[in-house]
Predict the 3D structure of the following.
Amino acid sequence: MKLIRFLLIMVMLASCSSSYDASVKVRKIKDNLSVDEALSILQKNIWPDNKVGSVCGASGFWYDENSDMEVKKEGVSLLSHKRGKVLKQYNQKQIGEVVVFEREYYKYFFDFSKVKEITVYSDYRLLPTFPVCNKKDMSESYIIVDLYISKQSNMKFVVKQESQDELMAALLRLFDKVPVYIK
């Protein structure tokens, strides 16, 4: 039953997507943005200071929420980690076996030149496949942006809907050849 429900939701998501057609307002903002200004807007939206929003999911790396993230013309640079050696193992009655790993830190680079498509999810409630993006304090005033390279490498971030026009203009400035879809 869960599989059928999941497949129905995925079909619904796939059928609801459409290519993004920038409004006059977004095109006007884009035309007046320099690349540096667009990068600044993206930095502010991907990694805001102590606010709801920012990166909420990623494939290909585990980011460290306490690190600095820098958006450059070439991509996003951030401190990330992977599983290191096993620190301890134990059994817990309700959960079963628990394994605690050491974090091995490294500098990760999310390459913008490899982004194949950008998807903007305007209804966060349709995101059962991205549960970490559905934060308790969110409402319909948020969107989720997915910079997609592959199933193994993408970056999702939550943005206040009031910032959508400015962000879309920045994305169009930086990713002028990448298709943008709205779901």
